[in-house]
Write a structure and sequence with these properties.
single chain, 227 residues, alpha/beta, Spore Coat Polysaccharide Biosynthesis Protein SpsA, Chain A, six-stranded mixed β-sheet, two-stranded antiparallel sheet, 10 strands, globular, N-acylneuraminate cytidylyltransferase activity
Length: 227
Amino acid sequence: MIAIIPARGGSKGLPGKNIKDLLGKPMIAYTIEAAKASKHITDIIISTDCEEIYRIAIEHGARETFLRPAELATDEAQAIDNYIYTIDRLEKDFSMNIESFVVLQPTSPLRSTEDIDKSIEVYKNSNARSVISYTEEHHPLTWHKYIKEDGSLENIFEDKLDNRQKFRMSHYPTGAVYVFNTQLIRSRNYFDESTKAYIMPRERSVDIDTEEDFRYAEFLLGRNRDE
């Protein structure tokens, strides 16, 4: 199974985040290294519009392929369009037959090879057409509110006063691992009734979008090295 690592050059929340130095190496290297150690991944494909990201990814073990078009790297571009484009190019230019693939976002550097392999195994050992990594939410969703411009509160859900322990546990997607059936993606869907979840611990589920996220990931990685 191939792994696609999407890493466009433009990032407004944390500029240059995909190759930002994280404890001595570019952040994208953590994802490439985890994928290289996987027993199920045969090729690591970097999907980027940025020549510098492409070069660094190749240096760390991604396969030499192609850059994505600029129109697939804008803020308005849909990730699913990029996946379809990448699969089409790989099948046409490299004669690959891609029935399924993994997406590994470089903004999840704490995700482990075990997380990758177990997600793929859930996919292979079930009838799922997609497997998506999730982690548990510590607070009930019904506690969330919209905040108006004047600072007042607006309900998102029906108000329900109760202790946290009384609410059913919910989970949210980590962004760390996606396993997709190619035909599901070609139908422009990520989920169907067969979709399964792979549950990750919160400490490996950090998705870096801001400087605060980056510093937290840096702290966790540094702590793990010291243990």
